[in-house]
Each structure stands twice: as C-alpha cells, then as structure tokens.
Amino acid sequence: MPFEDCICFRLGKAAKKVTRAYREEIAAYGLTHSQFFLMVAVMEEEGLLPSELADKTSQDRPTITGVLDRLEKDHWIERRADPKDRRSLRIYLGSSGSKFKTQILSLFEETNQKLLERFSKEEWEQMQSFLVRLEE
Predict the structure, then answer these.
(1) pTM for this predicted structure
(2) Element housing 22 (H / E)
(3) Which long-range contacts (CB under 8 A, 24 or more apart) does 92-100 make?
(4) Which domains are present in the chain?
C-alpha cells in the first residue's frame, strides 16, 4: 500500500487543512486552536466541570487544566465554586468570553459551514458514520 493511502496520514493531512481554515481568524483573538474549541464548548454549555469539558472536547484532563489556566489568565473563562460541592470548580465565561461570544460562535459556524459545503448532505452523513466507526 502506498504511503499516501495510509488512513492515519490522510486523516492527519485533512486535520491540518481544517485547522488552517480557523487559524488566521482565531489568531485575531489571541486564541490557539485548542483554546478556541474549548471556548466554543464553554459557550455552548456553561457551568461544566473541567472533567466534563475534557470528555466533551475529547482531550485528556491534564491538557484541559493547562488550557483552562491560560484562558482564565486572559479572562476568557472563570472558575467558580460549585454551590453543591465547594471542592469542585465549574467553568463559566469570563469578561473576554462574554465580550466576544457572538463573534467566536459566528466564526465557528461560518468556517464549519464553508467546510461542510464541500459535501452533499448524504456525503457528510456517510463521513460522520465512518468517523464514528473509527472512534469505536
């Protein structure tokens, strides 16, 4: 089998192109790719535990902690004590997250839509099915 037909190579190459589609736009906000997608996850559902955000974004917990630390330093998020369990901290939008929420979500939607326009509805459904199978 030729190198170019390796599934890992093809998925990696596609992932790099998708990442580039976002990179220039998110740089204007001072966010990295990981920070951007974590912010979209928080904007979609505030009040999650870091462990829940790790599961939601398919990242490991130590990685999430580091990303959250940087986002908190720049006021994108804030950690608040859980009213039911003061040992736990839940994640909410900070001042920067609230200020740029509309722009970040629009950027996410518009860029995603541009990428999805390359596929018919049936092709996208089939691709999602293939990706789910790979994740299993």
Answers:
(1) 0.87
(2) helix 7-27
(3) 92/42, 92/46, 92/47, 93/42, 93/43, 93/46, 97/39, 97/42, 97/43, 97/71, 100/29
(4) 3-135 (1.10.10.10)
Please give the structure tokens belonging to residue 98.
């609230």
Q: Which amino acid is at 32?
A: T
Residue 79 neighbours by CB under 8 Å, 6+ apart: 68, 72, 89, 90, 91, 92
> 101-122 pLDDT, tens per residue?
999 999 999 999 999 999 999 9
Single out the residue of 104, 103, 79, 77 nearest to residue 90, CA to CA: 79
Task: Tell me the one-letter amino acid at 62.
Answer: P
> Nearest to residue 70, comparing CAs of 104, 38, 98?
38
